[in-house]
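U., I forgot to send this yesterday:
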Amino acid sequence: MNANKTGSIERAGHSVNGWVMILLSIAGFIGGLVIFVHALTQISDRGFGPQFWSGLLLCAASAVSWGGFFTLQPNEARVLLLFGSYRGTIRQSGFHWTNPFNRKIRISLRARNLNGEKLKVNDRRGNPIEIAAVVVWRVEDTAQASFDVEQYLEYVHIQSESAVRHLANSYPYDQGSQNEMTLLSGGDEIIHALRTELQERLSKAGVHVEEARITHLAYAPEIASAMLRRQQAEAVIAARQKIVQGAVGMVEMALKDLAEKNVLHLDDERKAAMVSNLMVVLCGETNAHPVINAGTLYT
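Result:
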């Protein structure tokens, strides 16, 4: 397992097959009970003999051994501690037996979801925004999770919230400068940046980040309406620019075709009038209402 230089390192613990040990424990208890009862029938005036004490000791040892049995489900581990000393980790699923004086701490190795709450933070430009993320994680090193942090579940929650806040502070919500990544348009790059920071923060607790996604991203309510009007204005300006660019191209094409095909010869004043009329027709928001000229072109 991976570990940082100053952290704990997981190692394999020792256990034996639980089914074998349960047969030996039962046999030992029955054997000790037989010896104990036999010794009671042979008791003499000199008191209890060696058989009595050996039978009693064997029964007691068999009873104590029952404290060493435990089971492991798939994707589950037990951290073994003997009088405060780390004795290793058992990861193999099944029925096990170990030293009954070992303390056995259960740790799940399954993937877990952390659905973060909505956080109100300022983006890089100082605008208040709301952001939330979901993190999929699992314990990778049980020794680090048990000994390098106080409560690894609380540690994951707090550090995940801190990473999301730092991400929001590092990028603008939208409208970044040229080639600047934003939270709204960053896509996979923003997700990769969030996952990388989360992994750096949580590696101390022996946690591996499987996935991180932003689930909520919006302006804070107090500025949402103003920002919406700004976005609408920007959208209108962008649309107008497209319309004007297209209209200029169409007018240029019309004048060029008229000149090349000798359909009509216009002086500069008439060209200006034609360009003005075409731009009004092409750029207007409502349908144009033509005025029919019944006279000549110059009246």
